[in-house]
Amino acid sequence: MLPVSGVKPLFPPALLQKNLLPCPLVGRLSSTLTKRICFYIHEWLLIPLSTWYCRMSGVQMQPSVFPLPFGLVLKRNPRLREQEGLAMNLARAMGVPAPRFISFGEPPACYKDSFVFPSLLMTQLPGTELDAVIDHVDLEVVREDLAHTLSLMRRFASPWGEPICGVDGGPVAGPLVPGSPLPISADEAAFQQLFRVMGNFTGATGRTRDVIALAEKFFARPPHAIVFTHGDLNPHNIMVNTDGHVCGIFDWEAAAWLPDYWEVSVTAVYRGRPWGEFMDEKVTSGLYAEDTKGYRHVFALTQDALSF
């Protein structure tokens, strides 16, 4: 099955000669009742259990992450959405080493103005964050593993067709998404129109007009395939084991169905060197170099809309 447009991603090149596979089943969001029940279980049982567990085992607690026995971890923060859990399980179904999503808890309205936030229970990943050991691992091994991971994620056609949307077909949210959460776009042209509005393309004057012209040149490029995208594939979200191989990818809060340049070009523009250059030039062999160059001008006009 192909998206309606029939466009295939540039990376990996092998996909240009293959048919995309039907997407694995995307899970459904929990009912309000289920989310309320899970919230109280997480808040009244699992967080106190995590405090006891960390004290007894000498594990250091973090502000929004609560380690638990039996290889579990609870994540809690005000931006958390259940779609992150759905993205984890979809990634796992595609063969990506992601945590297993177990349950999502959402506080009732009476907690709105307190410091009580949504929470997500999942399995822990093995290994060490790449960010902590990046100077001591073979980046060629990391490159091969990330290229393989992207290949796994891009074998599948979007179940929603041409729309640019969240993993569940809803809005797109994430730290690199201007105007997050961004409404569903019917296609890439509609997606670009949202960026024109956020960048005030029609009201700009002076030098900004030159930047707009370059951004419009980027928008005029051939349409991109819509692919399953992690959305924030950076060293602090990648786990490696002792031999330097990637053994896990976490923080799927920005996962969505996005144009295939997004995973690489947006990261390269926003994060800069050396990681952005590594993703752009090494992992995908420069296939998105022109997209990266073009998106740089779009970012210059829309960066003020980043509020995630």
Automatic annotation (TrEMBL):
Pfam families: APH. Residues 78-283 form the Aminoglycoside phosphotransferase domain. Gene3D superfamilies: 3.90.1200.10. InterPro entries: AGP_Transferase, Aminoglycoside_PTrfase, Kinase-like_dom_sf. This is Aminoglycoside phosphotransferase domain-containing protein. It comes from Macrolepiota fuliginosa MF-IS2. The lineage of its organism: Eukaryota, Fungi, Dikarya, Basidiomycota, Agaricomycotina.
